[in-house]
């Protein structure tokens, strides 16, 4: 099985912590050069130190803010115009604020659409010409299992994630013939700052104790526990490898079997 990513360059968004960083760590273990992207430069520098360099990779980072799509466009255009190419793109950023769909404002939906779909589109448009030229490309969209089963209390997120998933599936059809695969990876309940935020919001909204909220969340997961970031990043890295060349256009839950289990 060919898992070798030596000589490949991966742009990993939302990678100063959590699922993005875990994906970058696993991609580096397979030999890829990593370009981290997020807003906080000091966290990016710290994340850079966690990446494997046994294959003599050159890792670096780009600072960009997905709240500002023009900024993302400037940053990626500058990077590509300097003659750089990207073989692997991991589209990812922080999740929208929790809350019911009925209570959200139009501006909340527009902001989330901009952060999650428009920024992905800008990055994808910028990197695909190089992928087409080399005949190798991997695009992974980190989304959520809410694509398959909406989650109560995450109204804006549920809505926008579905748009991103269908965008990804559409691209997989358009780009497959160029050796580019596009896949959506759907995290379940995984141990990160975001998961902590969702638990605390549930505690505040329900009045239940944190222990009770956790017990209820875990009772819905067949393997009976949260996922680790490493378990998630390993799946992303596999899908980016040569070995996964015939996996294209899937929505892959990494959720311990939660989705569809009643
Ligand atoms: N963890 C879970 O259980 C879970 C489950 C389902 C879905 N998800 C989704 O998966 C994605 C990643 O989750 P996570 O748990 O890794 O989240 P996280 O721990 O909150 O990490 C988010 C990452 O995105 C970056 N980021 C946030 N806002 C940004 C912005 N405006 N521009 C650029 N970068 C930004 C953050 O860095 P900076 O702050 O430095 O910019 C950080 O590196 C999120 O969309 C989340 O909602 C997570």
Any chance you could write out the topology, listing elements then pairs?
Blueprint: E1 9-13, H1 18-29, E2 33-38, H2 41-48, E3 60-63, H3 69-81, E4 88-91, H4 106-134, E5 137-142, H5 155-175, E6 180-187, H6 193-206, H7 210-219, H8 229-240, E7 251-254
Parallel strand pairs: 1-2, 1-4, 2-3, 4-5, 5-6, 6-7
Helix pairs in contact: 1-8, 3-4, 4-5
The protein binds NADP nicotinamide-adenine-dinucleotide phosphate.
NADP nicotinamide-adenine-dinucleotide phosphate binds next to α1 and α6.
TL;DR of this structure?
The protein is 45% helix and 14% strand.
Describe the fold and architecture.
This protein has 262 residues and is an alpha/beta fold. The protein folds into two domains: 9-189 and 228-252, 3-Layer(aba) Sandwich (Rossmann fold); 192-226, no CATH class. 45% of the residues lie in helices and 14% in strands. It has eight helices and seven strands; from the N terminus they run βαβαβαβαβαβαααβ. It has helices spanning 18-29, 41-48, 69-81, 106-134, 155-175, 193-206, 210-219, 229-240, and strands at 9-13, 33-38, 60-63, 88-91, 137-142, 180-187, 251-254. Strands 3-2-1-4-5-6-7 form a seven-stranded parallel β-sheet, with helices on both faces. Helix 1 (18-29) crosses helix 8 (229-240) and helix 4 packs parallel to helix 5. The longest helix has 29 residues, at 106-134. The model has no long low-confidence stretch (mean pLDDT 97).
